[in-house]
């Protein structure tokens, strides 16, 4: 197997040097974490499913004009992506009350919000990814006002599209997290593009009929059936990983 230099390892993915300049290989792990890395586990086959789910959603978003870092899937656990400069701000779009917003405002889980709410979080594990405002983002130089405008506009468009897409397969999009990056062209012109992944790791998805949770909340809350829930999301989207969920080894690395 080709030896590649590891660029970065996160909680759910590893980034390796790509085969050509300006590209990276994104490898999906089976590791699962929750509560700012306090809870850890392994969900067999999760990386294979997330690779396919993220590929499918990135391609569908590109079809409606959303710029992304995705190039193509390479194999069961890897995809080729464009190298971007990650904006250290996580954008969360909420449609139905769940998770931290319920605690902050004493809202019952499952309550429909008056409208979709967009929140920003500083991407910093040591600080617990704190909730921030646009003032924080601009004051600390994490992103410029035009970049915030682009991220907000793209997030709302993504929400509209994914809400309809998931509803079409019997799933309600409760909330989800997005990350963005700066992509530079040959002339050093920059544009904001969708980066990272879109999977049940970062989306809350409930069955329309039963409200059954089909996402990482099953791991957070020790509900069991995590891999089965991810598999069901993939099935409803029409995705069937080749050869099932069998594992493959990660690429060799040069430190």
Brief sketch in words of this structure:
The protein has 255 residues and is an alpha+beta fold. It has helices spanning 46-63, 100-105, 134-139, 145-167, 217-220, 226-236, and strands at residues 4-9, 13-17, 23-28, 31-34, 39-42, 70-73, 78-82, 85-86, 89-96, 112-122, 131-132, 171-184, 190-195, 203-207, 253-254.
Task: Please describe the topology of this protein.
Blueprint: E1 4-9, E2 13-17, E3 23-28, E4 31-34, E5 39-42, H1 46-63, E6 70-73, E7 78-82, E8 85-86, E9 89-96, H2 100-105, E10 112-122, E11 131-132, H3 134-139, H4 145-167, E12 171-184, E13 190-195, E14 203-207, H5 217-220, H6 226-236, E15 253-254
Parallel strand pairs: 1-15
Antiparallel strand pairs: 1-2, 2-3, 3-7, 4-5, 6-7, 8-12, 9-10, 9-12, 10-11, 12-13, 12-14
Helix pairs in contact: 1-6
Shape: globular
Helix and strand sequence: EEEEEHEEEEHEEHHEEEHHE
Structural class: alpha+beta
Number of domains: 2
Percentage of residues in helical conformation = 25-40%
**Radius of gyration from CA coordinates:** 18 Å
Describe the main β-sheet briefly: 7 strands, antiparallel
- Low-confidence region ranges: 243-248, 250-255
Number of strands: 15
Within CATH, the superfamily of the largest domain carries the name ATP-grasp fold, B domain
Figure out the total of helices. 6
What's the CATH first level of the largest domain? Alpha Beta
Tell me what portion of residues adopts beta-strand conformation.
Answer: 25-35%
What is the CATH architecture assignment of the largest domain? Answer: 2-Layer Sandwich
What number is the mean pLDDT? 92
